[in-house]
Amino acid sequence: MYTHPVASRYPAPYISSIWNFENRTITMRALWISLASAQQRLGVSAINDDMLEEMERNKSEINKHTIRDYETKYGHDIMAHIHAFGDLCPRAKKIIHLGVTSNFINDNSDAILIRDSMSHIHVLGEKLFDVLKNRSLAYLHVPTLAYTHLQPAQLITVGKRFTMWNADLLEDLRHIEYQLTHIPFRGVKGTVGSEDTMLKLFDGNHEKCTMLNHILATEYSFGKVIPICGQTYSRKYDVEIFHVLSGICQTIYKMANDLRLLASHSLVKEHFTEHQVGSSAMPYKQNPIHLEQICSLCRYVIGQEAVIANTYINQWLERSLDDSAVKRILYPECFMLVEYILNTCIDTIRGLIIQEDVAREQVFMKMQYVLSEEIIVRGVKMGYDRQQLHETIRQLLIHKSEESTHLLDVYKRDETLKRIIEEGGIHLNPHDYIGRCVEQVRNFYSNV
To answer: Any idea which residues carry the catalytic annotation?
Structure first.
């Protein structure tokens, strides 16, 4: 029997407990109980306290085999759950699911599980933010070579680089926070979103329909009920959720990919355990395997944003059924993967080894090029033409035949550049070429 890697190889215990069969079934039954209780409060005389107590007492009694047998018989998942719950609650059986359609259960259950999953993702995202912040501050003053076009450029600090990744993560956290306050409750809308059945149950009382939705949304801690929908809440809301999940995976992918590039230059390396093997053929290899794994899984989650977008645009009129099958897979699968990705990323960044000696060596090797911008700036201040200085330096650096014994020697072949260096006090201390990196990092964290 095939075992899905998402459940076995990439564990996500917390979100797995949210989306598992038992928790979803209990959530569905809780919604039926809440519905019946609210209907009773609003005057539906067919519902009594004994029925509500019976449903509450049996809410957690779940027999998977019974539910699956009913689904085989009826070919309908919600009807299977209704009959299985009805078997446990013979007195309440006749009022379970009164006046609602399947998507009262499916959509409201999804909203609850999505909200709970997003809350956990936010917690893990904040943990990752703190880990990156600690690394930013630990390497606040350490110069390192920056790259543009993947070619050596000027200097930044290791702490600034960690902060750049964290600035993107902060945007993701803000998007998650927005979604957590805006995930709507579908409420009770009926088969095509008109609330006609519930209106008739309440003898044409519109106020009671509004009150019913408000009672249920408040009970489940939702700030609002969807005002307009068809049978389902608009799958546009799913698009927005997956946009957020894709966004945080894009941020993590960018960071992990950057770290893989730095690992190829020996600037960083993952922590390896005593017996860990990096290659079955090459005993010396210590590949950044967790960073590679993170990138692979992020790509998968990012790709599902397109799937959910296609699900939204293919919701015909008030509802078609081609959304439910793919949503059953995508939501638990992607939320679980994001939990695993975040946990793995937190552990990997915590254990990441920063090779400061390598950074110093690489900075020294490229200081000759780093100096060029300062020479130009100093020269302009002394009255020289910026474009002419740029061309002189370009020619010298491109055509230099061999490394000079001193890094400034190549410039001193030109009398103008020699004068600028000597009178401008230009030197080779890399800490004087990191600009405002330290201030930028401090300002960023002080304003978060």
So the answer is: 149, 279
